[in-house]
Amino acid sequence: MCGIFGVYNYYGDASAFRQRALDLSKRVRHRGPDWSGCVVSGNSIMCHERLAIVGIDTGAQPITDEDDKVILTVNGEIYNHRALEKELKKPTKFKTHSDCEVILHMYKEIGTDVCAKLDGMFSWALLDTREQGPGRLVVARDPIGITTLYIGRCSEHPETVFFSSELKSLNEDCDVIEEFPPGHFFDSETGEFHRYFRPDWWDGDRIPTAPVNYRQLRESLVAAVRKRLMAEVPYGVLLSGGLDSSLISSIAVREAARISAAAHSDTEDVDTRGARHFPRMHSFSIGLPGAPDLLAARKVAKFLKTAHHEYTYTIQEGLDAVADVIYHLETYDVTTIRASTPMYLMSRKIKSAGVKMVLSGEGSDEVLGGYLYFHYAPSADEFHKETVKRVQNLHTSDCLRANKSTMAWGLEARVPFLDKEFLQVAMNVRPQDKLCSKDVMEKAIIRRAFDVEFADAGFTEEELKQGAYLPREVLWRQKEQFSDGVGYSWIDSLKECAASRVSDDAMAKARERFPHDTPETKEAYLYREIFEQHFPQPACLKSVVRWVPRTDWGCSADPSGRAQKVHEKAY
Question: What is the DSSP letter of 263?
Answer without folding.
Answer: P
